[in-house]
Amino acid sequence: MKESVREEPLAPPARGEEEHISLALANSAVARPGGHTVDLLGTPARANHWLTERGLAPADAGMREMCTTQLRALREQVRSLFAARAAGLPALPAAVRAVNDAMTRVPTAPLLAWDDENGPYRATTHPTTAIVDHALAALAADAADLLTSPDAERLTACGSAPCNRYLLRHGRRQWCSTRCGDRARAARAYARRTSVDTTSVDSTA
To answer: The pTM is what?
Structure first.
C-alpha cells in the first residue's frame, strides 16, 4: 500500500533556498514553537516527495528507509558545516568527509562501456540504478559550492527562536520568514515590558 504524503503548512522557503538545494536540505526539519518538529524527510514517502519536487528523483522512485536515513544523515552533516561557517568556527572533520564521500560516490564523467556487437562507447550510469547516490552527490556538491562562494559570507541562522532554519542574510534581516520576524519583534517587545515592570517594582520597594 502506497503511503500518502500530507502537506504541512510551512513558512515560505528561506532566502537562498531556491538557489541552493543544500540550504533547502538543511532546512528540511523545521522546529516549531512548543517543541514540535516537522521533518520533510521523516518517512521514505516524504523524502521521495521532497526529492521529486527538486528534480532529484522520479515520483515512483520507491524510496526505502535505508535511503531516507542516508539523506537525513547528510542533512545533519551539512547543518554542522553551515553552523560552523556562520559562527566562524572550524568545521568538524567528519562533516567534511561526509560531504566529500557523497560527492565522490557517483562518477563525474561518462564511463567506458563495451558492447559485444557495437564495441566501446561512453555511457552515464542510469540514474534509476542509484537514485539516492545521485541525489546525495548533487546535494553535497551544492553545499560545497555554497560554502566556498561569496554567498557564504551571508550564511546565517534564523534569529528567531526556536526556528532552526538557515538563510542567506539580506541587509540586516536575519529572519527566515515574516512569521519569524514578527515572533522575534514580539519577544523583544515582551522583554522590554518585563524589564520596565521589574524596574518599576524595584524602585517602589
So the answer is: 0.81
